[in-house]
Write a structure and sequence with these properties.
- The protein contains ten helices and no strands.
- With about 240 residues, it is mainly α.
- The chain has one domain (about 20-235): MetI-like (MetI-like fold, Orthogonal Bundle), CATH 1.10.3720.
Length: about 240
């Protein structure tokens, strides 16, 4: 019990003085996650909008596919990205394996289906309200997509935050493609796993507390966005 309390005491000390090693890991985690979510949004939002508006043969298959990929096992993603970026893989020439770039790619692959599927669900309901107006005004589908994305911006922000929460907590894929190299690819989740296995519970607890605070901030942001959207709807 004393060791447990001592570990918590050391963890709070690391947080209080914001230990440089702790800060380096946290900032790398945030940098990788923000980049991955940005890439996922650039790819996923337009695809989700297109699936919500367009009607074409095989559309249902694509919707089912992206919904299924929302539950894609991270270790499978890590393995596939590893094979692509390894020296024997088609993208091996880029020399990205065991770099933050590889971790960004792995997280983006995980988050993109979430962005696509949730965007499609949000915009499909909105498109049902606007469809007659779009048809009567002969609005091209890409302009309709921009309109829907803008009108649903508050709901879509919660989608982006959901993707961010998924990415920041990822460990399986990033440890495969990143290698958990100190000062290079060590992020919060992989560091927690390593420090726990080494018995250094203080740093692991400090990083865990940071992750909990980030999760709390994300959930608070989602609630604030929803509340703001409801106020805008009733205004």
């Amino acid at each position: 019990m004393q060791d447990f309390a001592h570990s918590f005491s050391l963890a709070f000390q690391l947080l209080w003085r914001f230990d440089p090693a702790l800060g380096e890991i946290v900032f790398l985690s945030l940098r990788v996650t923000f980049a991955a979510v940005l890439i996922a949004c650039v790819i996923g939002l337009p695809i989700g909008a297109a699936l919500a508006i367009l009607r074409f043969p095989g559309r249902g298959l694509f919707v089912v596919l992206f919904n299924t990929l929302m539950g894609l096992p991270p270790v499978v993603v890590g393995l596939l990205v590893y094979m692509l970026l390894s020296n024997a893989g088609p993208l091996g020439v880029l020399q990205l394996l065991y770099t933050p770039g590889a971790m960004i790619i792995a997280q983006a692959v995980l988050v993109t289906p979430i962005i696509v599927a949730l965007t499609q669900q949000v915009l499909s309901d909105l498109n049902a309200e606007y469809a007659d107006t779009f048809r009567s005004m002969v609005v091209p589908w890409h302009k309709a997509a921009v309109t829907l994305l803008w009108d649903a911006r508050y709901a879509l922000l919660t989608v982006v935050l959901a993707g961010f929460g998924r990415a920041i907590a990822e460990v399986g894929a990033v440890i495969i493609v990143g290698g958990n190299i100190n000062h290079v690819t060590r992020v919060m989740t992989t560091a927690i796993a390593l420090e726990t296995s080494k018995g250094d519970l203080a740093l692991a607890l400090a990083l865990g507390l940071v992750l909990l605070m980030i999760a709390l901030a994300v959930n608070a942001a989602v609630m604030a966005v929803r509340a703001s959207a409801r106020r805008m709807a009733y205004a």
